[in-house]
Please model this.
Amino acid sequence: MMTPSQAAGSAAGPDDLEDRLRRFATIWSRAIFPVTATSLTRPEFEQHLLPLARQLSEALHIRPFDSAAAQRVGAALVDAHCTDPDALSRTLGVVDAYLVLYCGNDQESAEDSRARCARLQHALAAGYALALRERTLTEQEAIARSALAARSVAMEALHATETRFRAVFEDAAIGIGIADLDGNVLEVNDTLTRMFGGLEHHVRGRKVNEWAHPEDRPQTWNMYEELVRGEREHYRVEKPFYRNDGTVLWTNLTVSLLRDADGMPQYQLALMEDTTERRLLNLRLRYEATHDALTGLPNRTLFFERLEKALAAGDGARFGLCYLDLDGFKAINDSLGHSAGDRLLVEVADRLQSCATAPGEMVARLGGDEFVALTTGRETQREVGELATRILAALAAPITLDGREISVRGSIGIVEGPAAGERTSAEVLRSADITMYRAKSAGGNRYELADPEADARAITRHGLTTALPAALERGEFFIEYQPLVHLGDGRVHGAEALVRWSHPQHGILGPDHFIPLAEHTGLIVPLGRWVLQEAVRQARFWHEQAEPGGSAPPLRINVNLSPTQLHHPGLVADTVDVLERSGLPPGALCLEVTESALIGADEDLLKPLRQLAEMGVDIALDDFGTGYSNLANLRRLPVSVLKLDRSFTQGMQQHPADPVDRKIVEGIVSLAHSLELAVTVEGVETGVQAEQLRELGCDTAQGWYYARPGPPDRLHTLSLADAV
Model:
């Protein structure tokens, strides 16, 4: 169910607005009708209040704000004989409680609506007081004119009028004070006296200008001087005062000029609403909105305010930012629980705060275990490094949690530069975040300085990561084929399928640019399936193009498998499905697995490879020699081919060959052949290298000496040339 204010803020029509105004007028009439001297019935009196309610509603929303309507409403109440002492206080109570509720809207903040409502109350009371005073003067004049005829009646009326005015003055819910044009306080009501501490002699008899406060707005006293000179009728400000005990009283102050019968300035009337508690509440809400609830540090909101202010500073100012992420915090949360993790964060926050105590320094918590430290000034090139060093030193001492000593480490990314640069606060924080991850990748417990080139690479990697799924859907990937040559007869034995990305902005990208990203995001599985489908389809096409009964055997296709694909439960089923759909014999497919992916592999990981090998699919151990695996493990791996890493054969590119490299290759070939494994060599670049590898007994080779990766038709041309 919507409240009246929510209903007022919704897209209501004129009928709804009129209905809410009638309800407000009903509440108002019920409140003041019992204390109103009128011959009208209550429904008639309610109809009389309805246009006044409409004026207050319009004044609540008018831009710019104008309280003249509220003053007219106050005067209208006096005209309607609502002059009982309770009439004004009850009216102010109704306006305070129900005007925003029934006439507010959600396009304005609650705080702004309440402030406008308070100012309308001041204006209404001022208009009421002025009208009551004018009515009193009018009645006094009438009494004077008819003094001879009805002196006794006139005296009674004058007494009644003065009594009513005094009752309104004394019992008003807001503080009211009257002063002369020299600033001497002449009269104050009890409410105003209580607002200043309850001692009347500390208020009455003082001069207005004695209540100056350091936080007064500059124009406050200028408006006051204009008012006492008769150049201004009223002004409204938020003004603080010192109480008798030295505490601060915050008020919404309305000061109006009272003129005599000739229109000359005579008195000044002040209406004060005590807003101290409201202001304290707002300050508290502001603190909670800008500070972290767990650690008490400034939060992301306040940090960005400070950072933007620092970046906007000119005149040679600089800034330095440290972005800290705790190393291994997730493990602490997982092992000791989130409660212990929270206590650790509180201790870390205390230590960080002790590191940033100099002027221009601050520490904030962005969330989780991420903190930032900001320093500003002219020497931040030196200071920011010292700040990062202090932070790492402060974290070095173990933290005791539940009887355990926990070692805390952190990685820090530093961004430093002139404040007058063109970077936004978001760009600065992003650079610091990227730099922090570089520090973490380098082992942690250290800090790194921002590097624009490294930032650009990281941003490019992120862009490639987010573009990968759509790129696969749009068909931006394609395959190049690098020939595998038989060293014995020089014939093309097959080809390795190498995926490429035709990126719209970055051009042709090799697998080194996107395969690790695909591994990280899990996209490597659908991408690998697509590569397998395309490569097998191409191999089937080559088989169909081969001459029946020709001397050249059908070309084989080698396809790389990533570690993630090895762990995927659908590997065997997907491979079988691709082969069956294409009609390619399993023996024409070789799946390449890196040696590092099989280090320490258990039987569960090897099981799908064994199933594929039993089907006739060859399994090649790629980059052999780089994984530091136990050579004895070769006996239990379901592999039929060793692909020797190029690092072992680079020394054979010239003659004479490096004797150590030659001995190593000779030993590996001998071992592989003894295990009935074929040997393929990668990275062959010279004829001398190829000849020496042939002499050592290597079976096949690939490299730029034979051909660079290219389109499939070129490979078919090479194989036909070999056949001829």
